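Dear Dr. K.,

Following up on our conversation at the group meeting, I've run the structure prediction for Mannosyl-3-phosphoglycerate phosphatase-related protein from Candidatus Pantoea multigeneris. I'm pasting the input sequence below exactly as I used it, so you can double-check it against your construct before we proceed with anything downstream. Let me know if the numbering doesn't match what you have in your notebook.
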Amino acid sequence: MIDRQHPLLIVTDLDGSLLDHHSYRWDAAQPWLERLRQQLIPLVICSSKTAAEIVPLQKQLGLSGSPFIAENGAVLQLNSEQRLQPHSGSLSYSALCQQISRLQTQFHFTPFHQLSDVEVSAVSGLTLAQAELARQREASEVLIWRDSEGAFAAFQQQLAAQNLSLLQGGRFWHILPADCSKQAALAQLLTTLSATAGGKLTTIGLGDGPNDATMLDSVDYAVVIKGYSKQPVELHRPDKDNIYFTAHYGPEGWSEGMDYFLTPDT
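The predicted structure tokens came back this morning:
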């Protein structure tokens, strides 16, 4: 049983978590989504997806107008009118792409901005319409690595020298400003929401990939959903009793984690 002295907030990854890794459906999580909506418990999406992808998904999930975190923390939507890029640099998406493209003289990789909607659809399993939204990036880039492991380490060093970081998602690698993360964006969002709520919020986070680790380390209760990434989700928090590892993937695991931390009459 979790501490319910403070208002509850759910923070969730999408792909491989609330959404099925293969079909992008959330049917198994629907009963919990209904329960949260009925009890007015807010659900914040915290994803590698773009804002262009998240907004229509919010509508389908019944979350329109709610805050969300996009592009692994490079974009923060506080409300329906206010969207931020909460990092100290002023690098535009086009400038970021130019910076990354220069590295193709040394390394073999394909960034999303060099792919068509058809090609993104083929490598991701998204529909053409969804692929178009996935390419509407604002502050980070996605790439498909095609080089050796040895080259990869050198590539990371080159990015770090340019104040850029590399994160592994469920399918692809993501490049974003070094001071961006899901954790940092969530901290900024919680400061705003706590002020509105008049005090601390109790948070439950759910995610399946290495790029969710910082977010899962920063919430009060963490659900690590069984995922397909070759790299495990490694958490560094000391309160192991507040971490739950699911036996199921995707929305089934998402619901399993919610069941674990919240009683049916929550």
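Two things stood out to me. The chain has a mean pLDDT of 92. Residues 93-177 form a domain with the Threonyl-tRNA Synthetase; Chain A, domain 2 fold (CATH 3.30.980.20).

Best regards,
J.T.
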